[in-house]
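Handoff note, outgoing to incoming analyst
You'll be picking up this chain. Sequence as last confirmed:
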Amino acid sequence: MSASVGDSYREGEILTAPPQRLHLMLIEGAIRYTERTRHFWRENQNDAAFESLLRAQQIVSEILAGIKISDEFPLARKVAAIYTFIYRALVQAGLTREEKYLDDALRVLHIQRETWEEVCRRLGGSSPSTDDIRISEAAASVAAKETIRSAPAAPHASPPLTNLRTPDYPQEYATGFSWEA
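Most recent structure output, in case you need it:
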């Protein structure tokens, strides 16, 4: 399959995918680029590793930008905190070039992938607006489908890189990432 055919197929898949599938594709992309970073580090290909790590960070920041923080959806803050942790681990990995930070990010990304695969299985390929959506409590607590917007959001600020090992981030880290466009 040529590159143009592959690109056309991917573009068609993206344009026709429901929101939950798009979110899963983003998570899979972040996993893929994070694993590539590890591979490039081991091969001492620092430029390629930097590009791959940057791409993973961009994907996670786009996920963060799409989370709608409001009092209506209190679960959104918890979901944002998950992706904030992933983003900060990726940034720390880039600063220190330590694989343990990649491992931390990948561990959480794999859990997110499993959750969103389950969401996609339960919702199928149909539009969530036309179906009666029933998601298990476990999937709802992590996925919070209602918190993800399909429209692109405005840029957001990056959190400071202090206290990375603290499991309880201050509230502003989980709330300051989304602007209403």
